[in-house]
Design goal:
Blueprint (H helix, E strand, L loop, with lengths): L2 H7 L13 H12 L10 E6 L2 H11 L3 H4 L2 E7 L1 H34 L3 E2 L7 H8 L6 E9 L13 H4 L5
Antiparallel strand pairs: 1-2, 2-4, 3-4
Helix pairs in contact: 2-5, 3-6
Amino acid sequence: MEFEALIQARRSVRGFTEQAVESEKLHKIIQAAALAPSAGNQQAYEIYQVTLPKARAALARAADQPFVAQAPLCLVFFANPGRSARKYGARGHTLYSLQDATIAATYAMLAVADLGLATVWVGAFNDDAVASAIGAPGDWRPVAILPIGYGAEVPGPVERRPISEMVHMLA
């Protein structure tokens, strides 16, 4: 898919069929995330691949969003602050690791759309409950849950904020 068409076609989908995500497609999604730029190439993020129904249900409870459990696959992106802090100190700990995880999740989200799959960015959740649901170390910070599968719905476009309101020009 051409990039412009991809970003215009991508939608947030909250309904999924039961069809499993093929391992080849999952590999491409993970590869895309791994190719995301990161501060100093530290790749200060971790990704959990969650297919166990019990773990997906725990993620859905942690987010108070039942559709998360409906997706056959969830990728959970964590910032690994310690990894970035080794090179960048406090700024790496508080900011760069968060940015790294966010960019990787965004690359994964675009790969999902490019492969004809569906997802939605889930960022509203209880951090401790997400970490507990999958046994992540306490110093990693959950950034996003991407429930992934074949869409059971096809949402239409949503209204976007005018570019003229968000771009500020200094000339």
